[in-house]
Amino acid sequence: MPMASSAISHFSSVSTSSLCFNFSTKLRHPTTLRQFPTHFTKSLTVSASTSTSLDYSTDKSSLSSKTSNWQWKFKDNSIKIHYEEHGNETNGPNKNILMMPTISDVSTVEEWRLVAKDIVQKSGDVNWRATIVDWPGLGFSDRPKLDYNADVMESFLVDFILDPNSPVNRMDLVIVGGGHAATIAIRAAKKGLVKPTAIAAVAPTWSGPLPIVFGRDSKTESRYELLRGTLRAPAVGWMMYNMLVSNKKSIQSQYKSHVYADSANVTPAIIENRYELTKQKGARYVPAAFLTGLLDPVKTREEFLQLFEGLDGKLPVLVVSTSGAPKRSKAEMEALREAKGVSKFVEVPGALLPHEEYPSLVAKELHSFLQDVI
Predict the structure, then answer these.
(1) What pTM does this model have?
(2) Which residues are CB-neighbours of 99 under 8 A, at least 6 positions away?
(3) Which whole-number Å values give the CA distances from 209 to 36, 205, 206, 214, in the listed order?
(4) Which InterPro entries does this entry report, sorted A to Z (predicted)?
């Protein structure tokens, strides 16, 4: 998240990364394949070195695509939620994928778009229909001044899946999420709030930028609360947000340092697009919560692993790690390599947004997983 480096510098003159953590590292390991159904039987090594960067040119394929809005009723609020649908109009049985963007101040459905289109256009026995939805307070959804926390985001995910008027068909549904979105989906499934056919966690994370660096105690929590309150304030909040987040130089720096693995893939079009997202009305409320740990679905690595363990034997879970993730986030991904409840673990190039930076490679791994679980 492009807020964090500047925020942490102001927090205590310590520089760190933004979307989640800091200090990029390059670690390569063979991919391991864990057994879930009987047809998951072989070990697998991913070797993919070709860069596939995001392309904002007009798509010329024959895919069926549309954008629309859904109204989320939350307490006394009616919140407009933006989503996209991508499908294949050929005859055959249909199955459904729900793709959840990584939570950050530049979160958007666009980060999953090329992956969705790649998957739904592949031929096979099943036609996949992919829905990508912006979180409340992010992307092109409304951004009201709610008291955002992990429970609010979990409630949204559950309501979007279960509401009778939802665009998502919850039958034969596979949930795919990046970063915190993946862990929130895992938590909801462990609680039994949603019952997907399978879950794919792409570069999963669980801790916001400040807690991962400074930890959690009464002193730091007080500082987080002060910073969060300042960012949410009517006048000074916008001033601080503009200084820390909403400027192109900051966004470009963060993308090149750790959001993408290859700085050459960070184009002016991407930076301009993400900059515009930070200028939306109410743009600072969710980032203020994420930065200070309110959106963390768990508090410790042990709790993180317990979420996955709780799904052991219940449904297939794919974890997609990245070779170029920042050091701290990489360590959390690696903790899942042999974790109970993880039926398949793969590694691809990338850092914190591999699905945006290398969409064809991530789509290949997801499609392979989907073929195994249908």
Answers:
(1) 0.86
(2) 109, 112, 115, 116, 130, 131, 132, 133, 176, 177
(3) 33, 11, 10, 9
(4) AB_hydrolase_1, AB_hydrolase_fold
